[in-house]
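Predict the holo structure. Ligand: pyridoxal-5'-phosphate.
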Amino acid sequence: MNYISTRNKNFKAAPSRAILDGIAPDGGLYVPESFPFFERGDLLKMSDMSYPERLAEVLSRFLTDFSKDELLVYAEKACEKFDGDPCPLVKIEEDVYVLELFHGATSAFKDMALSVMPYLMTAAKKKLNDTAKTLILVATSGDTGKSALEGFGGVEGTDIMVLYPKDGVSGVQKAQMTTSPGENVNVAAVNGNFDDAQTAVKKIFADKDIKEKLRAKNVELSSANSINIGRLIPQTAYYISAYLDLLGAGDIEFGEEVNFAVPTGNFGNILAAYYAKKAGLPVGKLVCASNKNNVLTDFFLTGEYNADRKFFQTASPSMDILISSNLERFLFDLSGEDDGLIAELMNDLKKKGKYSIGNGLLAKCGGIIFAGYADDKACFKTVKDFYESYDYVLDTHTAVAVSVLDGFLNGEAGGGAKTVAVSTASPYKFAADVYFALTGEKIENPFEAIKRLEAYTGAEVPDGLKDLDKKEERFKDVIEKDGAGEAVLRFANR
Ligand SMILES: *Cc1c(COP(=O)(O)O)cnc(C)c1O
């Protein structure tokens, strides 16, 4: 099975090629040419499997130039880095569950894919007889950065450079990244917000001059952002796994639809849920939850995507995004793979900062997505209420999803089906805001906030977040967004 570009579906690439490229040469995003379909028998067979086995099964259906045996090795190695079950499903009350995706090395859901992706990338290079050094270039709103540093740190034949928005990440997130060990890693702050960092990275990918200079050193760029299908495909596995867990617990009958509520930024995580649905999983509605940067909520309401608006820094910084890249893939699919339309819309976005879709396509979106948003006030209230009701501490991103989910369940469309809220981070990653939500007390120092939150809730601090304040800060560079290309070349030439 090949992958095709959303902006020209005649352009095809093998899965390994798509993973190595990150982005299609025409600037489009790679999508599966066709979707595998998990029949009832396939799913039932997977019920008895461990998570790494389920992951390998899913990967093998999407990444057809990899063997199932090698994928199982990668999946098992990746899952070793998790603290116990990589994706436990916690029952909160009748019909409502939380899917915890934060038990990896960096305490955010990005680990679910980024722990396996370096294996996929190294293997893809071998398959393609590619001997170049790979430079992974990442723009992060906070969590992808550390997760990619963790995954690619020390990987042979690979360098990794992470750009994060200077004032746009939590204190814990910043410390996690700037204390990263390894010879092959580099981290810099960009003066600007996440969209500035993401735009700078996209520009470098499109810059022939930079690419040639790198090529002269036998270095090829690649991406670990969710524009890379090597990020997306592993994410479909935990939706399937959660469904199988519900079946295994006897909480659903086979075929019963389950809704998922997803805290959304770049639209990668929720798109993976949609891909699971395409692959045959009985998924009902997808609740697309945004914070005050509610460009997606407006889009699904009106059909106009308008990124030309005020940018807010919120307590859920990993969702502070105005350009949700993976929406392109969703619209490509719902439009019946209308590559001409997608190319036009993305051109409008680039030139005018906005685009509009017709009513037919909007109605199709509405058949799948329920969109809503929660500002910080609503998010904090949800953290507190949830703790008081269920003795369960939500992080600020997950709380946005739970807040929007409440609106869904109380509205016309809600009710009936079981719903899973996808939890994307440990509360300790955003300890200061979570502690404030619970107690009304502001703690400036992020490490002090971790201690206070631990004392208040009694929940254990994940290993990766312990003693962060005692580690040496290795990376202090702050660059302008126009200087990102130079910084990448300096790193490659070091
Ligand atoms: C990245 C991230 C999100 C947003 O996920 P997308 O795939 O970008 O939509 C939500 N919450 C947390 C904690 C994240 O790190």
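The pocket of pyridoxal-5'-phosphate is lined by residues 108, 110, 143, 226, 263-269, 318-319, 397, 424-425 (CB under 6 Å). The radius of gyration is 21 Å.
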